[in-house]
């Protein structure tokens, strides 16, 4: 097993945990998400939220100056990131 494989598996674990948490409980603050996922470090949660936001699986909003809300994105794992409006 290469040195990269455990890192990839751990990254997928935290991403899955984030998605499951949001599917179960709905949108929450970034801090609430981190507190819920106490098995992972702040850096792991933050990096996973960043990756999932960039690929469209999560939405990250900033309703207040120091608050970020995380929710499930509009696109699924296999859905296109850009969806056209119906005519």
Number of helices: 3
Which H/E pattern describes the elements?
HEHHEE
- Quick one: biggest sheet? 3 strands, antiparallel
Spatial strand sequence of the major β-sheet: 1-3-2
Task: Find the structural class using helix and strand composition.
Answer: alpha+beta
Can you characterise this structure?
- The chain has 87 residues and is α+β, with helices and mostly antiparallel strands.
- 48% of the residues lie in helices and 17% in strands.
- It has three helices and three strands.
- Helix 1 packs across helix 3.
- The chain is globular and about 40 Å long.
Please sum up the structure shown.
With 87 residues, the protein is an alpha+beta fold. It has helices at 4-25, 30-36, 42-54; strands at 28-29, 58-64, 67-72. It has a 3-stranded antiparallel sheet.
Relevant terms:
3 strands; 87 residues; 3 helices; alpha+beta
């Amino acid at each position: 097993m290469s040195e990269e494989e455990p890192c990839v598996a751990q990254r997928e674990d935290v991403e899955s945990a984030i998605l499951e948490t949001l599917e179960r409980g709905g949108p929450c603050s970034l801090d609430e998400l981190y507190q819920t996922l106490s098995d992972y470090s702040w850096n792991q949660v933050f990096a996973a939220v960043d990756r999932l936001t960039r690929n469209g699986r999560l939405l990250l909003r900033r309703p207040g100056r120091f608050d970020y809300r995380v929710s499930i994105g509009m696109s699924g794992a296999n859905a296109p990131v850009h969806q056209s409006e119906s005519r």
